[in-house]
Amino acid sequence: MTTTTTPDSRWTRRRDEKQRRLGLVKKYADGAVLPSDKIIEALEALILPGDRVVLEGNNQKQADFLSRSLAKADPAKLHDLHMIMPSVGRSEHLDLFEKGIARKLDFSLPAPNPCASASCWKTACWKSAPSTPTSNSMRGWWWT
Is 15 left (phi over 0), alpha (psi -120 to 50) or beta? Predict the structure, then answer.
């Protein structure tokens, strides 16, 4: 006799939520391809307020496209995001915070000028995070 058991929901919660969210954007996609003119609607459907979002691309064109698209999102739909980025180097990155789309920032790439605008320093409160083994003793920062 073969017995089939279903996994406990606490073990599949994240996978189930991912599948639920991907199902929400199927209407915007053409098979596995998401047309670039539908990216803002797809981001607003996929991302929930307060989510952690890693904003990075495999190349500069992807990173540019993603940051510009996310900055065009409706702050009433997307807000209080926790952004995880290698650096804050584009004006769209600052727009995310100024529009209220993002609330918190983690980045680990040290740079001579990690903030692209002096206004960022005037309006932000930066706190140093403890070093972790994965950060190679570099200090992380977050936006509060």
Answer: alpha
**Type and span of the H or E element at 66:** helix 60-71
Q: Give the C-alpha separation, 83 to 92, whole Å.
A: 12
pLDDT number for residue 64: 86
Distance, CA of 69 to CA of 55 (rounded, Å): 11
DSSP state for residue 7 in the 8-state scheme: P
Please give the helix or strand (H or E) that residue 39 lies within, else none: helix 39-46
pTM of the model: 0.69
Amino acid of residue 19: Q
Which residue from 126, 120, 121, 122 is spatially nearest to 144, judged by alpha carbons?
126
What would the mean pLDDT of 98-119 be, rounded to a whole number? 71
Which residues, at least 6 apart from 144, have a Cβ–Cβ distance to it below 8 Å?
Answer: 104, 125, 127
